[in-house]
Predict the structure of Eukaryotic translation initiation factor 3 subunit.
Amino acid sequence: MGEAMTEVAPAPQVEEPTTVTVHVEGPGAKDAIVLEHVSPLDTVMSLRQMIAEFPVFAHHTCYHLELQIPENKWIPLNDFIELGDYTAAWEEATTEFKVRMILDRYDVRKVRAQVRRFRDIMANPPIPQSAQAPKPKKTIEEKKLTPKQETDKQLKLLKDIHSKLEGLVVPVAPTLATLYQPVALNGNAKKTEKEPTKKSKGKKKGGDAKAAANNGNATEEVPLDATLPKCIESIVVSGFNPPPGPRKLAGDLTYLEVTLPDGAVLPITAHVAGFFVNKSSKTTFDPRPAAAHHHLLLDVLSAASPAFAAQYAKLLATAEAWATAGASSVEAMVQATSGANSLVWTTPVATTAHAFDANRAQDDLSVGIDERGVIRDWNEEYQCARELPAATVREQIVRARVLYKIMTEFVEAATQGAMAIVDGTIPAINPMDDESAFVYVYNHIFFSRAVEGQKHVAAENDGNHENAYSSANHDLQGVKAYNAADVPGLHTLATVVVDYLGVRIIGQSIIPGILQGEAASKLVYGSVDGGKTIAANAEMHAMMAQAAETLLIAERTVQPAGGADEPPSGEAGTDAVTLCGPVEAKGILGSDNRHYILDLVRITPKDWNFYNPESDSVTETSRASLLPKADTGKYTALLRPELTQLYARWKANQLKQAKKDAEKATDAEKETEETEADEDEDAVATLRYNINVLMPYASTTDAAVAADDEAVAKDAAAYLQSMVIPAFVADLRRGAMYPADGTALTDMLHACGINMRYLGKVASLCASFEPHVSKYVAELLEVEMIARSLKHIVAALFLAHPELRTTPGCVLLQVLNALLGDHLPSKAAASPEDTLAANLASLSLTPAAIPDLDATSLWAKITADVAVRFGYTLRFWPVKKAKKAKDAKEVPVRAHKLPLLRRVCQRLGWQVASRDYDFSREAPFSADDVTGVVAVAKSSLPAHAFVQAATLIERGRFLLSQGVLAPAYEMLQDASSLLYQVCGGAHEDAALVCASTATALYHAGDVPLAIGSQRRALGLYSQLKGLDYYDTAFAHANLALYLHANAETAQAVAHLQRAIQILEVAAGPHYPETSVLYYKLGMMCQDVGHVALALVCHREALRRGELDRMQAAGCLHAMAMACVLVGGFREALAYEQKVLSLYTEVFGEEDPRVVECRKYIATFTERAVAGAKDRQEIDAAAAADAMAEALAEEWEVEIRQEEKKKAKAGKASKKK
């Protein structure tokens, strides 16, 4: 990992075409807009999408564009052709072009598009361009303010911030109830959790009174609307549709009924020339126009109903207010466009009951209608895209863009098809075979189930089922690897693996002729009968050998086993052949004369540790259950491709070091210096893996070579056990990496070449170091193991009870309550069995609860499965209640149910309502809490949409980490431009670019631009990965840092609070990064003078920080400085002395930090002594004052008595 960071590949030379400016003139030359930074590579269709982002043109769908060319002529533009093909008519130096919109006549398809666009805008209005890039609010005006006014302004600002901080509760509760509440839309109450403190309640009244008194701040205190105004109730097809013959000939296309919020119903005719309100009623058909016609549906409704026009204006104003509010617009728009994502496991709680919605009902009836007409030939599109030229950067961009578009659409289509297959909508093409061998063809996609064909029956052990699961994963890895090798002429299939309701469906594009038999396609490479006959076409072998150079696969001569029962297929035979790849891989020559490679299950050798009887990495139970299946040719335990690359690099370094040592010994350094680099490259190239070793058949005809190949495979497996896994654990131990959840953990393990079956070994090693390893590591590993085991257990339940797939809610409810409920409740409430039965009954007319599935039996299955699958005994699960209250206080809780719920739902594709659950109940989930099941899809889509952009991002981030800002910023901008041209910016890499650009701008001092870039990153992460994704949490934290630097502390604290909330939901309360965030939260409160809250945050950071002494010292120093702000020098001295002890222990006496700490201690001591003297003087003065007051009272009495005497004496003298 470190090597990759230090030896970063040089940035590719990007010959980016210059962008142009396009002036767009509206219909009738009424309105005009300017599109800047338009790439000539953009198609005219993307130009239309840019135009649709402007509110003035957002409703236009039925038009075409014309480009002005020299001699003042206009030419129409084809939507599917690049803009650069038309602008070539001008000189190359021309960078400004003029385009006009010409309205077209409607047809039925265009009417449907107009209505769909209208409804989309009502749900997600366009943001006015003036509000898209808001400037951060200046909290302190600098114009014409006297020093006194400036001071008053700052005091008001601090008071406002303090009033908002009153509702902050520390520690932040990991609640799901507020997950979908936008951070910046809640006004003063946005930081108040569900249980505000009593103090905050008492202070709120006074705060509200002050806010009401401050008329100048009244506009800032009004919270934004959290919902969009409703402009229409419904827009549906009228019952008078379709138009009768005479009206159809007159140009009527369809009749619509628009219901407004006030109950008025407008009958509207869609005509070829536009829309108009007709004179029909509910019962009478009168197609005559009641008002003038308009080209846009919006104009018709605005003219017919002033109330609609007012509501639409309010809609645009709300959208502008959201955009101006900054982060709120991001989150609100993300919620409005809830994109489907497998990681989204919670759904917002419905605030209203299931309401009548004619639009929704009409949409549901239209599901399944393919408006594109002809079903797409996915394979032809995909292979043509792969055959596109890639000699120049521009050609590579075009190729990557087409491939990305096709693959994303293929994944969507295959996922929908797989779900329809499991739901029973699509029939099999071989209904006479056993159900486990069913295959399907839908939308030119070939689907198969991941089971072992005819051999698998429900009564048999489910080992076959699990091997098919892993084989599908390995095949997908193989396809990705050969795609990355990108050998011209060698084709793979577009592949998707979909898990849905316990069934794994594999979707692939169809090889031309494969379904028509051998006459149309034939085998030219590999074997279809397990190595009995093997084919090795010379042309195909040359391409496989080229791919093998990248994949480090050895070329070996293999002797077929023979004994085939059927005649050989295609070019297969029994003679010895030379192969570069697994024997079971199949090279097919399709009827389109392309060479396809299939069944790439084994592109790496077997993992010897898993099969070695003397290995201690797998338990006897695990080996006994998995070995027999592996021996029959079902491959479950392979080394990862990343490990083979790491091992080859490691061996090369070993050889390099050995050569250096030999050179020093022989004093021949000078002669070999020039050839070292070449020899190093040769050392890497010489290591090749024979992936057919450790198989039932001979891996090669040469026994000596076979022995050497087997030794290499065994050594690679030993390298994984003896070096890679311990190094990974060491990184976890010293805090070099902190995976925030199971997804991050999986990515990190795979990047290091560690298979997930070694989770148990990693957990055992971490447990042995536990006092010196963060507590959360073992907790996270156990949660991941439980979630993975439960996935197979639930799949087995669905396999044993296939009828439950029709009512999966019963299974979800029963499993979740058994998994997360308290099976030993302290108080026996109403009968839990009755509660569960009632929940099941409310889900289905015929509830089919799984018998004998309660908490005890489910946890017994999970514990046994984890022991078999991972060789690990769960330490924290199931949750055991302490017998005594004292024990409960002493033993910290290590089993956290919320992270387990999250990870289980992510792994299985389940969705639950985003509310807080009482896990102390036996049945915490009710029927309304289980909201859906989504398919979890893995595809052959590459991780990076464009490799050159990924290289630029890596290089730019490396330079950013070195503090080289200008080149880093340029590289990130180049990467952003490339990504926008390839995938339109809606990609995880684009979010990373935005976040990295924000960091560069922040360090360069441009905080407002950094805030804008970070908000875009936050929006992308939220939309692409979900609101509780770990990168979303870190995006919140970074945005908080930038907002605080821009004097927007209230918003910053809200974002930091959301980051802590997300990380606690994902990783539990012991995640080390939350301690850092609490420290930052305390520093923000301290910077605005809220010392009490700052101390609370710092104490929370100290409580959560386990092993990082430097962070503890920083927290203690911050607490000392906070105490200094309020004059608590004695407390500051105590904290700073603890800092000194920590620094001395870590760095020694001479370190500058220790010296500085001693200076602080001396200062605090002096101030504390002075303060003590001052207090003594104050106390003495107070005592003297008290004595003086007491004496004065006595003197007053005496004086009054003397005055009375004098007064009497005076009166007496007067009388005399």
